[in-house]
Design goal:
Elements (H helix, E strand, L loop, with lengths): L1 E10 L2 E11 L4 E5 L6 H8 L7 E6 L2 E2 L5 H7 L1 E4 L11 H12 L3 H11 L16 H12 L6 E5 L7 H14 L4 E5 L3 H7 L2 E6 L2 E6 L2 H4 L2 H4 L4
Parallel strand pairs: 3-8, 3-9, 6-7, 7-8
Antiparallel strand pairs: 1-2, 1-4, 4-5, 9-10
Helix pairs in contact: 3-4, 3-5, 5-6
Length: 229
């Protein structure tokens, strides 16, 4: 479905990603782990079209998409949930979803139904300005907003970073409910979530993918994964 070959990405003269190869199959939930500065966010931004690669290829269903603008990738079904948890602060929660529905050409009733199905408690703050939400609530809103329309590939950057344990459980349930319905590449450091949800894991270090873990017993062994964080 998504194939990345020999990808190289740089900021100016500083090369950040080196000859990277990655695949994402339909319905898969792939996690990327690694220490800070490994290039994980840069990789997601490059796939999402926010950064242009200096070399290599990115193909989606045999179509080259490397360097394509984010709006074109959004029309193809790509959704990027950034780490910064930025929402349209002055709009209500419902209006944030409505804006996404308008952009995706999806009826609002259908869009809101999708969001409430994955997180029913959102009804409790639907009329609240999104800027007044907690960090965890904003993350849930952003994931819900990404599911509006007909998403094919979700790119989610550190969804549980800095969140309380009870909210992390909400995020886990939402991601679990998405399994098999949409393909996803998720950067995540919470190994409890990674080992419970991952179909495959890629380990990044200094701009390189140094290991791919697909064996379920290896994925379940968090003590092994801890050596890469």
């Amino acid at each position: 479905m998504l194939q990345i070959c020999d990808l190289g990405v740089a900021y100016g003269h500083a090369k950040v990603i080196h000859d990277l190869n990655l695949t994402l199959n339909p319905g898969e939930m792939v996690f990327i782990v690694g220490r800070n500065g490994a290039g994980k966010t840069t990789l997601l931004k490059t796939i999402a079209g926010l950064l242009k690669p200096m070399k290599g290829s990115i193909t989606y269903n045999d179509q080259s998409i490397a360097g394509q603008p984010p709006e074109k990738l959004a029309r193809l079904g790509f959704r990027f949930v950034a780490q910064d948890k930025k929402v349209f602060s002055e709009l209500t929660v419902r209006s944030n979803i409505e804006l996404a529905a308008y952009g995706a050409g999806e009826p609002m009733d259908k869009a809101w139904s999708k969001v409430t199905q994955i997180y029913p408690k959102i009804e409790e703050f639907r009329d609240m300005p999104a800027g007044n939400l907690s960090g965890g609530q904003r993350e849930i809103l952003l994931i819900g907003r990404a599911l509006v329309g007909d998403p094919k590939v979700l790119l989610i950057d550190e969804p549980t970073e800095g969140l309380a344990a009870i909210v992390i459980q909400d995020i886990f349930r939402i991601l679990s409910n998405m399994r098999n319905a949409v393909s996803a590449i998720i950067v995540e450091q919470n190994l409890s979530i990674v080992k419970r949800l991952a179909d495959r894991i890629y380990v990044m270090k200094e701009g390189n993918l140094i290991r791919e873990i697909a064996d379920k017993s290896e994925i379940a062994d968090s003590t092994q994964l801890e050596t890469y964080l």
